[in-house]
């Protein structure tokens, strides 16, 4: 009882009570201030455009011809998959190998990396793609320290848990992904925008997000932002990376204003060939589906806001856009002319797939795995199978394109054309598809090691170095890669 305590203890007790009360008042006041600030938390607003200008902006068909030391007869596309730091390091190792490989074009010795025209990036792969587009060769001296060998995940968790940051993403229209974008600017992107990439000599980098409402892809290049009637030039690279890696629930969607339908957007020429499902020719089913998605983005009246999440939800290897583009090009000769496709003689698609397959003991036990593991498996398995199907479809298309051209040439000959005229009447475009993944590792123990690396944004430095090394080794051991390098005028490992 207080009455039985000494006066000193009574005084200490009273002072302690007052102190605790003051702390509680301070905490309540701070909480109210935080709520007031949170109500004002807002995201960056993407700028509208009043008229589409197909001759300006971040567009591959405008930027690729401007690149120096680049063979315009070859369209070289890299596709970097998702997978956190594992994917970022694996794709970086591929860039290192391309940089080491030399070829001879027109009697001049060049690096194979300089022939790369486009890099599609999803989630972890988008960081490597965007950073290379921004840094160029500077990437090879700074990327490890700035990103790969940094505890990005720990830093993000600390920022989210820090109460002094809550006003930035609690309430209003901002979210945790905006806080992540702020961090990515500090360590890697330096507040650069897509407008800053227009004069760079690096490949065009296309990071991809997924429309949460429809599951459609939205790539960060002006062609897709035309659908939203929005100017990509002012969008920061960090927001593109944050969007592409915005894992649902873990991170918040990234929201963009949609002004679609207000800027005189005209559908590309290929749409006329596929818009009517009853008259369109095969194969153009994916192109028709893309047309439907484009119409949805144009509907800003019913969809004034587009909420984007991880690009891996719709395409974890970044190849679907390439596949659809090939269908669009096949569907319309006018479209091929629009994008300057007539000079292309070969297309090289190098898919860098850092997918994992962690070992489990579920099948050895009678009890099924827990709820969390079931959810992870239920989402991961369809994504991996979808990715496998996409790569195989591209390989099938490479084979089909060969015999389809032979068939068209034969038909021209039967119609009475000379052999030379028949050959000239059908453009000869060779498609090469190379899949670089852990599946090609011959040793079971080493393959299991890479397959069990976690999908996170932090890995030990030893894992980073091993990922870089195995990427180059798998390329040098690939017969398909050897063929590609030979066709371009070099030898792997030169």
Strand proportion, as a percent range, falls in 5-15%
User: Radius of gyration, rounded?
Assistant: 26 Å
Shape: globular
Count the E strands. Answer: 10
Structural class by sheet pairing and helices: alpha/beta
Helix content: 40-55%
Note the total helix count: 19
> What is the H-and-E element order?
HHEHEEEHHHHHEEHHEHHEHHEHHEHHH
How far apart are the termini? 87 Å
Q: If you average the pLDDT, what whole number results?
A: 81
User: Any low-confidence stretches, pLDDT <50, length ≥5?
Assistant: 1-6, 31-39, 403-409
Largest beta-sheet characterization: 8 strands, mixed
Describe this structure in words.
By secondary structure, the protein is of the alpha/beta class. It contains 19 helices and 10 strands. Strand 5 and strand 6 form a beta hairpin. The longest helix has 44 residues, at 371-414. The protein is globular and about 75 Å long. The termini are far apart.
Give a short synopsis of this structure.
With 494 residues, this protein is α/β, with parallel strands linked by helices. The protein has helices spanning 7-38, 60-63, 84-100, 124-135, 139-148, 152-161, 166-169, 176-189, 222-227, 237-244, 271-274, 285-298, 320-331, 333-338, 371-414, 419-425, 444-451, 461-477, 479-488, and strands spanning 74-80, 102-105, 108-111, 116-121, 204-211, 217-219, 254-257, 305-310, 346-353, 430-437. The protein is globular.
Secondary structure blueprint with pairings:
Layout: H1 7-38, H2 60-63, E1 74-80, H3 84-100, E2 102-105, E3 108-111, E4 116-121, H4 124-135, H5 139-148, H6 152-161, H7 166-169, H8 176-189, E5 204-211, E6 217-219, H9 222-227, H10 237-244, E7 254-257, H11 271-274, H12 285-298, E8 305-310, H13 320-331, H14 333-338, E9 346-353, H15 371-414, H16 419-425, E10 430-437, H17 444-451, H18 461-477, H19 479-488
Parallel strand pairs: 1-4, 1-9, 4-5, 9-10
Antiparallel strand pairs: 2-3, 5-6, 5-8, 7-8
């Amino acid at each position: 009882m207080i009455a039985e305590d000494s006066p000193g203890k009574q005084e200490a007790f009273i002072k302690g009570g007052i102190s605790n009360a003051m702390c509680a008042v301070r905490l309540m006041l701070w909480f109210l201030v935080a709520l007031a600030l949170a109500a004002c938390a807002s995201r960056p607003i993407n700028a509208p455009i009043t008229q589409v200008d197909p001759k300006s902006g971040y567009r591959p068909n405008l930027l690729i011809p401007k690149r120096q030391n680049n063979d315009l007869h070859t369209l070289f596309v890299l596709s970097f998959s998702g997978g956190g730091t594992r994917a970022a390091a694996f794709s970086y190792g591929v860039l290192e190998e391309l940089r080491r490989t030399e070829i001879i074009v027109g009697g001049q010795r060049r690096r194979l990396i300089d022939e790369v025209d486009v890099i599609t990036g999803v989630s972890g792969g988008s960081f490597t793609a965007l950073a290379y587009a921004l840094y160029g060769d500077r990437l090879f001296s700074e990327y490890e320290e700035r990103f790969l060998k940094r505890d990005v995940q720990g830093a993000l968790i600390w920022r989210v848990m820090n109460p002094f940051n809550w006003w930035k993403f609690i309430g209003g229209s901002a979210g945790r992904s905006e806080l992540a974008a702020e961090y990515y600017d500090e360590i890697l992107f330096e507040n650069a925008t897509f407008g800053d990439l227009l004069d760079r000599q690096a490949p065009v980098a296309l990071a991809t997000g997924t429309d949460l409402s429809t599951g459609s892809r939205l790539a960060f290049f002006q062609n897709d932002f035309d659908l939203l009637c929005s100017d990509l030039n002012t969008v920061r690279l960090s927001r593109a990376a944050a969007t592409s890696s915005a894992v649902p629930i873990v991170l918040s969607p990234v929201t963009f204003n949609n002004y679609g339908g207000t800027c005189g957007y005209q559908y590309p020429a290929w749409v006329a060939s596929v818009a009517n499902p009853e008259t369109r020719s095969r194969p153009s089913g994916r192109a028709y589906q893309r047309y439907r998605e484009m119409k949805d983005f144009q509907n800003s009246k019913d969809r004034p806001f587009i909420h984007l999440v991880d690009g891996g939800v719709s395409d974890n290897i970044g190849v679907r856009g390439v596949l659809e583009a090939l269908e669009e090009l096949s569907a319309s000769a006018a479209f091929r002319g629009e994008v300057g496709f007539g000079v292309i003689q070969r297309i090289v698609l190098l898919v860098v797939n850092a997918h994992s397959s962690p070992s489990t003991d579920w099948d050895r036990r009678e009890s099924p795995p827990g709820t969390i593991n079931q959810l992870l498996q239920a989402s991961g398995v369809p994504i991996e199978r979808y990715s496998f199907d996409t790569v195989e479809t591209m390989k099938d298309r490479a084979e089909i394109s060969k015999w389809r051209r032979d068939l068209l040439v034969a038909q021209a000959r039967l119609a009475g054309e000379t052999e030379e005229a028949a050959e000239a009447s059908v453009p000869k475009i060779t498609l090469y598809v190379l899949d670089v993944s852990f599946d090609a590792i011959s040793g079971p123990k080493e393959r299991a090691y890479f397959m069990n690396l976690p999908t996170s944004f932090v890995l030990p430095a030893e894992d980073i170095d091993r990922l870089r090394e195995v990427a180059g080794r798998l390329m040098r051991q690939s017969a398909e890669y050897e063929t590609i390098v030979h066709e371009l005028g070099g030898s792997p490992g030169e």
